[in-house]
Amino acid sequence: MNITITKTTHPGTLPPSDQLGFGTVFTDHMFLMDYSADKGWHDARVVPYGPITMSPAASVLHYGTEVFEGMKAYRRPDGGVQLFRPWENVARLNRSCERLGLPQLDPDDALQAIKTVVKVDENWVPSDPGTSLYIRPFLYGTDPTLALHGVHEATFAIILSPSGSYFSDGLKPVPIMVETEDVRAVRGGTGEAKCGG
Predict the structure, then answer these.
(1) Is 119 a catalytic residue?
(2) Catalytic residue from among 39, 72, 172, 194
């Protein structure tokens, strides 16, 4: 897969680790790739991070045709960057796509996209203990019609966020509640898919 790279002309800097939080700071770039039923996946690109433009009639906005994943990259002691089992996340992303009727990704292309955008923003991977670069791949339907239909147009995107702990006070035991009536997933539902809606 050929990925074009357009670098930002206004690069940011990695904030101190104690100011990261979770999912509130974003790197300079993001990955985008488009899908159409007649062309398949095309126009793979890394571009400066910014707003995503779509039709107000895009199917994701009206029918929740969206799936997402979450994975991390860590700074190794030797200064390199290590992804944590990205192939498992790509496989789950494709299972979610299948469940929601979204076009699936070639796993090798998806891994190449992840590795490429992480490499472009490698200087954003924090090195302090308890920190990581959170990687959020997501895929959504963009068909510009309100008619009920299968997805014929979509976008695959990846954004990156240098992050500290998900919990602002660090990882601490939390009280739990066991639900005896409501269920998260029913047979034939979307409980196993990581999806919007």
Answers:
(1) no
(2) 194
